Amino acid sequence: MEHFRYFPQITYSDELAVNIMVRGVIRDYILENKVLYYEYTIPDGMRPDILASKYYGNSKYTWIIFYANNIIDPIEDWPLSSREFNSYILSKYGRIESAKDLENPHHYLLDNKYVIDKRTYEDITIESSRKQAITNYQYEFELNEAKRNIQIIDSAYLFQIVNELKVLFD
To answer: Residue 114 belongs to what domain range?
Structure first.
C-alpha cells in the first residue's frame, strides 16, 4: 500500500521492515481533532477504494479511511454487501432459514439490552413483551450494519494531514 512508504523503518530479525506500530499515533492525531471529519454511512456495496476515489479523487487514499476508523483488516472490518452477506450466512449456517430459526437463537435479550439465559427467557413470571430471542441472522446482520457508520476526513484537510504525517514520521 502506498501509505506505508511514509512509515519509519526498523530492523526486525536482521531485516529492514516498516514499523506499523505507529498506527496508533496516526489514529490519535486524526481523531483528536473533530473538525477534520464527519460521520458517514456506507451504502450497500460501496467498496473502500471507490469511497476514497469519490471523496479524495484517488483510490490511493483508501488508507486514510482505514486509519480514521481503526480498520485493521478491511475484509473483516468493512461491511458486506447484501449479496456478500447472504453468501456469508449460507456458508456459516447452511441456509438462510437455519440462521433465522427461533428455536436455535444466538442469544436472548431482556428489555432490549440485557443478555439472559434460556431459563430466564422461559420464565413465565417475566412478561413476554420484555423478552426477545435474537436469531443468528439478526445477530450477524446487526454486526454487519454497525460497520456502516464511519468517519470521513474532510477532503479539504487531506493534503495537510498527509504532509503532517510525513513530517511526523521523519
So the answer is: 82-144
